[in-house]
Amino acid sequence: MRLKAPRVRPLPDEELNAEQKEIFKSLSRNGNVFNIFRTLIHYPALLKNWLTFANYVLSKRSSIAAREREIAILRIGWLCKAEYEWAQHVVIGKACGITDAEIDRIAAGPDAPGWSPFDAAIVRAADELHKDKIVSDATWNTLSERYTENQRMDLVFAIGQYNMVSMVLNTFGVQLDPGLKGFK
Q1: How far apart are CA 38 and CA 23, in angstroms?
Q2: 150: CB partners within 8 A, 6+ apart
Q3: For a pLDDT cut of 90, what percent of the chain falls above it?
Q4: Which residues contact residue 129 at a Cβ distance below 8 angstroms, ignoring those fewer than 6 apart?
Q5: How confident is the model at residue 1 (pLDDT cuts 50, 70, 90)?
Q6: What does the pLDDT read at residue 184?
Q7: pTM for the predicted model, two decimal places
């Protein structure tokens, strides 16, 4: 973790007000609420509005297949050195069919041996957006071979969303939830 302690402290249940408790009802998983939400709950209006977009990107409403979305999210999390993001999405990615070998390739980048040209283009799109803030014509054209215009738009928004989330996690010092493994 970049920060060994949170700058914005995650709120425990006993410190939540009625509005915050109501928001947590939809965010609880098996009685637990992730540290990202316990941190962002300090600002309920921001959290509720951000969740609308975040849920779109992470849901079935997005036009990108879950496995491909997770490749992009994991790559931008890796590039941003966002250990919390990486750890959460390794779990999500594996549930979407990403293998351990692919997890290692995501960390290695788009030129790592074993990628299909299309999957490499997804990883490369994250790299280009991170570095240059634009997807190159070559990468865009490769993505266009399989993705519709809406899918290409969803990919850029997914990478941008998780770039922002990575900045939030790193800056606020959100610590890993119990049971998550960070970077190797």
Answers
A1: 11
A2: 63
A3: 92
A4: 76, 135, 156, 159, 160, 163
A5: low
A6: 66
A7: 0.95
Neighbours of 145 (CB within 10 A): 9
SS3 readout for 120-138: HHHHHHHHHHHHHCCCCHH
Helices 117-132, 149-172: axis angle to 10 degrees equals 50
**Alpha carbon distance 128, 177 (integer Å):** 30
Which residue blocks in the chain are alpha helix, DSSP H?
A: 18-27, 35-40, 44-58, 66-79, 83-95, 100-108, 117-132, 137-144, 149-172
pLDDT at residue 72, as a whole number: 98
Q: What are phi and psi of 154, to 5 degrees?
A: -60, -40
> Do 172 and 83 contact (CB within 8 A), yes or no?
no
Here the tokens at position 105 are 């390739």
